[in-house]
What we know:
Chain A is mostly helical. The two termini of chain A are about 35 Å apart. Chain A contains 13 helices and two strands, in the order αββαααααααααααα. Chain B is mainly alpha-helical. At the A-B interface, helix 1, helix 3, helix 4, helix 5 and helix 6 of A face helix 1, helix 3, helix 4, helix 5 and helix 6 of B.
Amino acid sequence: MTARRRRLISTARPWVLLTPALVVLAGLLLWPLVKVVLLSFQDYQVKFGGGVATFTGISHYRELFADPRLWKTVLPNTVVFATACVGLTVALGTLAALLLQRLGPFWRVICSTAIMAAWAMPAVTGTYVWIWLFSPSDGMMSHFAGSLGLIDPDTTNWFTDRLSFFAIATVNVVHHGFPFVAITVLAGLLTIPRELYEAGMIDGANAWQRFWKITVPTIRPIFLVVTILSTIWDFKVFTQIYLMPGGSGSNEDVYNLGVWSYQRAFAQNDYGMGAATAVLLTLLLLAITVVYIRTLFKESDEL
Amino acid sequence: MKRTTTFSRIGLPLAVVALLVFSLFPVYWMVTTALDPNAVTRGADLLPSGISFKHFRYIFDQGNFGPFLLNSLLVGFGTIVVAGLLALFAAVAVARFRFRFRTSVLILVLIVQMVPLEALVIPLFLQMRDYDLLNSLLGLTVVYIALSLPFAIWTLRGFVATVPKEVEEAAYLDGCSWPRMFWSVLLPLVAPGLVATSVFAFITAWNEFVFAYTFMKDSSQYTAAVGLFQFFGENSTAWGPVMAASTLITLPVLVFFVIVQRRLASGLAAGAVKG
């Protein structure tokens, strides 16, 4: 074997190994992403055996941004809901992690197993359980609130009101999301040397000060990552909203970007408008992703 | 120190109870409703009125749930076999070789992981329709392979990197060819990582709703998550059967999470810090 040929083989080897995965990622994730952008500039009509696309320029975007529903309902729903979910998920996850850290081995296993159970519930089945708990008249929560005299279970429907709809959705998303934060933060907490806390105690720092002055700075990268990942997940919550009563389109008050996009594409067969809405969601997530990647690169020297 | 003692005596147990109730109550309510023969009239009774498997029998006899579960299994296994193999190749490439654009490839993998599925579902639906892959378990499997690849590559890369280079060099000195080394030296050593990523890929496919719901319009091709949806739409008050089916979907994932919880914790921490 000549030296030249050997060099060629060693250059080609990683690419031979990478090609199958890259082809799949390019064909099924990147190309559709390009397609959705193209679609957002087109009107797409379904004809026998295929589709016919007509270029319409930025008209979909003009319509999207001119629609008061975007500014009054969809964007506030998306942003406020995601912010509430992220805040509660990270706060509750961190509290759970601090609790787990203080427990003895027996109770730590019990509690972390319970947390795992919350995590393991798929979004679909988890959502059904929350719908069932809050379902009007026969749900457990409706019964409970009714027996306390807070509501009339036969006339109250939690799902028709925008605020209570999203309150239930928030509980659902936080229940599903806080375990990831708890387990990740706990793993970080366990790496903090005890001496740091002992030094803090000697200096007279109380628990609150020790948390903000020692814990948070030491595992800052972990907090950053769990916050950014939760933000990305919570901006694109779809299943949990879509499956709740009214969430699939009958109640316009509860649209978020993902549901609105889906609704336009598949219920109204307006793929162009659906695509434009999806592109807006993607751009929002892209902005968050850029922050995520920059953070990762700053925290680790070698990727 | 006195304040700490008061907290440990009262605050800590209270916090434990609150955490247990919030985490487990939905699971408890799901399982007990599934077993309660009078599920709908249960109201706020904490204990089920009795134990019966009639809802489970109902979903298989009348709800056609068996084929849905089978479809989910087929799609899940198809996903793990192909995604595992492709991810292993890619992981070896990025962990073992230094080449141009290596960092670019890694960033690309990271970025595609963030792409919102709601954006992909429209073009993929049209693409699948053009290739006549709607209502096809194969079409759905192909999409799930793509969805689980970025995470699988990212995780396996860590596992491959922990295999000492000396092991491979020793194999070379013994006259092992590269493919042979791959199969008989590297593969057994990264097997635990491969198992972990496979299970995660399986759960991705098992839990996925949006694509399965959009692509599968013929009820014979429903996966369990979609079968459940249809079931719920038809009898909106049949909570017993809905919870029985939900229990069957949740149980395998739950068992897995409880088994791997220790490994999961250390893996997540490493991933979060090292990226």
